[in-house]
C-alpha cells in the first residue's frame, strides 16, 4: 500500500471515535492513544482522496457514448391498456443513422431493463426510491457495447423490457411494477429474470386474433436478456422460445448491471435458431473494457460466422431414407449426450422428464445422430457450488455497485442506495425478498465463512473439469431446462391486503435453476430450445397446455455446436412430423381407396406445436 499524501486543511468530520468504531467492526481494538491519532490522520488522507474523485468530472469511454440514431432519443411509458402483460418497461423507436451492416436490418428488438440504452431509464426492475434517494431515476448516458453493435447491425430498438427486481428471480412476479404475465395464459409466470423480454418475443410468435387484449399489443421479434443462473434460458423454456447463454467472455457485459462478474452473461432470445445465430454474431467479440473477457475471447473481426455455419449445416447433402417418399440427412458429426443426473434433479416433473427424453431420442435419432447416456455425478452439486461461489459477495456487486477488482467501466448512472433503509427493506420484502436474503447472506458469510467462497471457486474448476471429461465422449449434453411448465404467480397479498410471507413467495422458485445455474459458474454455452407441450395441472384449465424447453450444453468456445445441435433437433422434428403425416395418409388411403392421398412433402414445422405429452 502507498500513501500519496497526508491530509492538511481538509474539512473532515472524522474523529477518533470513528477510528475506534471502525476497529470494533473488524473485531479489534486500538489501545494506544498515539496509534489512534495516527490512524485518524491516515483515514483523513484517504477521505481527501475519495472526495477529490467524487468532485472530479465524470469520464465516459468514447465507445460507450450514445450510438447515433435517425431521430432524437425520446421514450414513453405505455399505459396498462397498451401493456397487458406488464412486459414493457419503456417504449421508444431507436434506429441507427450510421449502420455498418444489414444483418438485422429492420428487425425489432427489446432490451432487458438492466442493460443500458442511452436516453432510457435503467430501473433494474426495482423501485425508483431504491435506485435514487429523490425517486428520480436518471437516464442512461451510455449504450452498452451490445446495444451499439445491435444498432449498427440495423435493428430498431422498440424499448426496454420489464425485468425482475434486481434481476434476482427465475420467475416473473417480483418486478416493482407488478408481475409479468405469460402471453398464453394470464396469471401464469413467464419465468425470469428476463421476463419481459421473453413475454414480448413469445407474444410476437403466437397470434391472438381472438384476444382483444393482445391482438394489437406492441411486441418484438427479438430480445436481449442477462443470465446469471438461467435468466435467459428459464423464461425461454416457459415461453417456447430459443434462449442462449453464450460461453462466458464471448459477449461483452459492459454497460449492464452486474450480479457477480463470474456468472454475468448477456444472451439473445428469439423464435428460431437462425435469429439466435445472427444475434450472437453481432454481439460477440472483445470490446477492450470488460474484465470478464479473456485471451480466449475473439476480436470482433475474428468472431465465428455463426449464421454461415448454420447455413452450411442446413445445406449439407441429403441421403435416401428408409421411409417411403422421403429423404433425410446423412450421418452427422455431432454426438449427443443425455446427462442422466439432470433428469433426476428434485422438482423435475414426469411430463418434462419424459417429454425431453422422448423428444431428444426421437428428433436427434431422426437425423441419425449418435445418442448416448452420460453420467456426471457432480452435476447434482452444481447448484450448491453456484450458491457458495457467488452468494457471499453478490450483495457487493448487485446492491452496492462494487467494481470487480479488475479495470472495469461500470454504468455511471446506476447508484443504488446503500446501506439499505427500513423503507428499502419494506419495498423488497413486499416484492422480492430474495434480494433481502442476498443481503443477509452476505453479512453471514462475512462473519462466519470468509474463506469458503474462495474454496467454492476452486470447486468450480472441479465441476468444469467434470463436464469437460464428459465432452471427451460427446459434443453436446442434453438436460431439461426448467423443471416444469409455467405455474401461477404466487399471491403477493392476502385477502385483507397484508403482504404474504417470505416463503409463500419464494417457495415457488426453489430448484427452478438447478439444471441451468451450474453452467453459469463453469462458463459453458447453453441454450434452451422448445421441446414439447404439457397439460396445465389446473381443473379450471382442462384443455390448456404450455411449452417446456430442452437445454443443449456445449464445450466452452464451441457455441456453434450448440446452435448446430438446435438446428438438428428442429430438423429431426420436421422429419418425424412428415413421417407421421405420411403414415396417417397411408392409413386414410386404405380406408378411402377412391380418394387421393394428401400431399405433405413441403411441411413447414416451424409453427406446428409439438405434441402435448
What does this structure look like?
It comes from Lophiostoma macrostomum CBS 122681. Pfam families: Amidase. GO terms for molecular function: catalytic activity. The protein is of the alpha/beta class. The protein folds into 2 domains: 40 residues; 484 residues, Amidase signature (AS) domain (Amidase signature (AS) enzymes). The protein is built from 17 helices and 14 strands. A 12-stranded mixed beta sheet has the order 1-2-4-3-5-7-6-13-14-12-10-11. Strands 8-9 form a two-stranded antiparallel ribbon. Helix 10 crosses helix 17. The longest helix is centred in the C-terminal third of the chain and has 33 residues. It is globular and about 105 Å long.
